[in-house]
Specification:
- The protein has about 550 residues and is mainly β.
- The chain folds into three domains: about 95-255, Jelly Rolls; about 270-320 and about 490-545, Immunoglobulin-like (Sandwich), CATH 2.60.40.10; about 325-485, Galactose-binding lectin (Jelly Rolls, Sandwich), CATH 2.60.120.430.
- The protein is about 15% helix and about 45% strand.
- It contains six helices and 39 strands.
- Strands 1, 2, 3, 4, 9, 12, 13 and 15 form an eight-stranded mixed β-sheet that branches.
- Mean pLDDT is about 75; it is low at about 10-30, about 55-105, about 315-325 and about 490-500.
Length: about 550
């Protein structure tokens, strides 16, 4: 026991000699609860910041539209809408968004859906009705619609016009189809009514994909794309994502090395002021004019009857064979639109309400109605001024109407008065399916005009008239119809001076129908070895002598 105590004393003394001086001041104190809470809060902040940066960088990466089989769309299942038929596509070809403003894309075509032709970034965009003649087709559930005004100082007037008009859909999915040459395209979509790309779905040939990042956006609009798409002969495009959404415009561009092209609109317009009922064996004359810019090189215009060429011309005829029309015109009826009925030039006009019970119909659903008290220029009698101050109009497309009439020849007059601003509106006049005048309706404020006469032939008991918008909403104050009793005389080329309408319809050929029956006349242009799409058709009845 004594020995053990001695050993313990010597060991303790040795330990005291080797102990590090001041070691106690480096001892790590224990953390209290508040210190641990502060430490954990700082750690969570750092982790959250890292996650935010990861998501932010991911938002700038637009998704690739792969050719995987389209998922079942529960929204469209059972919808009472026949979808636009899809075209076969190579499932191995991807469609992916390209960088905005990519240097290897060149503008090909812009389409202002639901609106007139516009100029955007120096490029002309087609009006919807013009694009419809160049391969564009709308889904049955799509309809033109005007939206709210578009804000943004960075937007020019034409871009605002394009964004205000657009398409909506009763199915919730706004779809269109464009015919084109199989090739690679860069496609951008302009939508209004929303600027949140995260809620927008883009459909490419029925495949639903997120829109990705908006290339441009404003308070209530955005442009998504361009998407690089390897297309077949038809391309379906669509958007969905909100009750107020409108598909306002589509922009097509070519990609470097691609032989992309879109169908052209008809290059030729037929002269529709031709007798619609012609005796077999009687010489007649078909005439036409070129649309758009006049070419420097000669152009051949071919005239076709039921698809068969019956004549062609490469020169602008100076004194062509003409059909001289003579006869009498008798007032038949007048309609005071949105009015109570008036007497003009001694003829009693019906009120619109009275006309509705006597064969008249406004085809446009729920047209707008307006009544003013303007003093018109030039001055006129009180009944005419009253008729001009009441009118109907249409914000969302054609202003169309019809009137039941016995088969025969008629002259139609349209009465217009501008009740907004100078040159506020313009529209094309379409009668019995053919354009009778382009760009009508451009007037100074309070100015009025009696347009016509537009001669036409009714062959089915119904006169059909439409005002097709070119700029703003078409408006009409009155309709006047005269019945024609006409006789036809053929004038040979060498028999007289230049035809009065030669400046409007400079290309023409003589034509003598032989067989009786209904035929369709069309025309097309051949320039630089390329043949244009055929013009709108003109139906002619060839009767026995």
């Amino acid at each position: 026991m004594t020995v053990d105590r001695g050993r313990r004393r010597r060991a303790a003394a040795a330990a005291a000699e080797t102990e590090v001086p001041g070691a106690a001041e480096y001892e790590i104190p224990s953390r209290d609860a508040s210190s641990w809470i502060t430490f954990l809060a700082l750690a969570l902040v750092v982790v959250g910041l890292g996650l935010w940066l990861m998501l932010r960088s991911g938002a700038d990466v637009e998704p690739t539209l792969t050719r995987s089989p389209p998922p079942v769309d529960e929204h469209r299942a059972g919808a009472d809408v026949e979808p636009v038929p899809s075209s076969p596509r190579d499932a191995s070809l991807p469609a992916a968004p390209a960088a905005d403003g990519a240097a290897d894309t060149v503008f090909l075509r812009g389409i202002n859906l639901g609106g007139p032709a516009v100029i955007i970034r120096g490029e002309r965009w087609m009006a919807q009705n013009e694009a419809a003649a160049a391969g564009l087709r709308l889904d049955e559930s799509a309809a033109a619609s005007q939206g709210r005004s578009i804000a943004g100082r960075e937007l020019d007037a034409d871009t605002r016009i394009m964004l205000v008009s657009g398409l909506t859909s009763t199915s919730g999915i706004i779809e269109v189809e464009q015919s084109l040459t199989p090739a690679r395209y860069a496609v951008s979509l302009w939508v209004s009514g929303s600027s949140d790309a995260s809620t927008l779905s883009v459909l490419v040939d029925g495949v639903r994909r997120p829109a990705g990042r908006a290339a441009r956006r404003g308070e209530n609009w955005m442009r998504v794309g361009p998407y690089v798409i390897d297309a077949g002969s038809k391309l379906r495009l669509g958007v969905s994502g909100g009750d107020d959404l409108r598909l306002a415009g589509i922009e097509f561009a070519t990609v470097a090395g691609s032989k992309a092209s879109l169908p052209t609109a008809p290059r030729v317009e037929l002269n529709t002021a031709i007798i619609r009922r012609i005796p077999a064996g009687a010489p007649s004359y078909l005439s036409a004019r070129l649309l758009g810019e006049q070419p420097a090189a000669p152009v051949t215009i071919e005239f076709l009857v039921d698809g068969h060429v019956v004549g062609s011309t490469s020169t602008r005829a100076e004194t062509p064979i003409a059909v001289a029309v003579s006869g009498t015109s008798t007032f038949l009826l007048g309609i005071d639109l949105n009015g109570t009925g008036v007497t003009i030039d001694g003829n009693r006009w019906r009120s619109e309400q009275d006309a509705l019970g006597r064969g008249f119909s406004v085809v446009t659903p729920t047209p707008g109605r307006d009544a003013k008290a303007l003093t018109v220029e030039p001055a006129c009698d009180s009944d005419t001024e009253s008729m001009l101050n009441t009118s109907i109009y249409c914000w969302t497309g054609d202003l169309s109407f019809s009137q039941g009439l016995p088969n025969g020849d008629y002259a139609v007059y349209l009465w217009l008065m501008e009740n907004a601003n100078d040159d506020h509106r313009a529209f094309d006049v379409r009668i019995e399916g053919a354009i009778a005048e382009r760009g009508a309706g451009s007037l100074a404020q309070a100015a009025w005009k009696r347009c016509g006469p537009y001669t036409t032939t009714v062959a089915d008991g119904l006169l059909e008239v439409a005002l097709v918008p070119v700029r703003k909403e078409p408006m009409l104050a009155g309709i006047e119809i005269h019945q024609l009793q006409r006789s036809v005389t053929t004038v040979a080329a060498e028999a007289g001076p230049e035809r009065p309408d030669h400046a409007l319809w400079p290309y023409g050929v003589p034509w003598t129908p032989t067989a009786t029956g209904n035929v369709e006349i069309t025309a097309r242009a051949i320039e630089n070895g390329k043949t244009s799409s055929p013009s709108a058709g003109l139906r002619i009845e060839v009767v026995a002598k």
